[in-house]
């Protein structure tokens, strides 16, 4: 069951940026990045997901939908549904 205030948290513990990294998500819609520890404000390289990311109906990691996101190096990103 998905609730209104649920978030998606993605952690990258490697020094590599991953572009177009596919993650599984629970429902259709757009996700927006609400936190990124790689932001320039925190001393990071500013590798951000600046636009809403549309989910697609493709089963991934036991979820009915997926989304392609940028995962910055050594960072935590948090998304929520728009």
Protein architecture, described:
Strands 1-6-3-4 form a four-stranded antiparallel β-sheet, with no helix packed on it. The model has no long low-confidence stretch (mean pLDDT 96). It has 82 residues and is an all-beta fold. It has no helices and six strands. It has strands spanning 8-12, 18-25, 30-36, 53-54, 65-71, 75-81. It has one domain: Immunoglobulin-like, CATH 2.60.40.1180.
Short description:
By secondary structure, the protein is mostly beta strands.
Strand order of the largest sheet: 1-6-3-4
Low-confidence stretches: none
What is the helix content?
under 10%
Structural class given helices, strands, pairing? mainly beta
The CATH fourth-level homologous superfamily? Golgi alpha-mannosidase II
Highest-level CATH class: Mainly Beta
Report the order of strands and helices. EEEEEE
Instruction: Count the DSSP helices.
Output: 0
Q: How much is the average pLDDT?
A: 96
Radius of gyration: 12 Å
Oligomer description: single chain
The CATH architecture is Sandwich
Q: How many strand elements?
A: 6
**Distance between the ends:** 17 Å
Q: Might you state the CATH topology name?
A: Immunoglobulin-like
Strand content: 35-45%
Shape: globular
Main beta-sheet strand count, sense and barrel state:
4 strands, antiparallel
Number of domains: 1
């Amino acid at each position: 069951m998905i609730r209104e205030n649920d978030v998606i948290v993605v952690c990258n513990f490697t020094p590599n940026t991953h572009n177009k990294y596919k993650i599984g998500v629970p429902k259709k819609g757009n996700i927006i990045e609400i936190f990124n520890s790689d932001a320039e404000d925190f001393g990071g390289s500013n590798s951000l997901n600046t636009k809403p990311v549309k989910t697609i109906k493709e089963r991934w990691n036991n979820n009915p939908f997926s989304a392609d996101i940028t995962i910055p190096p050594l960072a935590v990103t948090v998304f929520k549904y728009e």
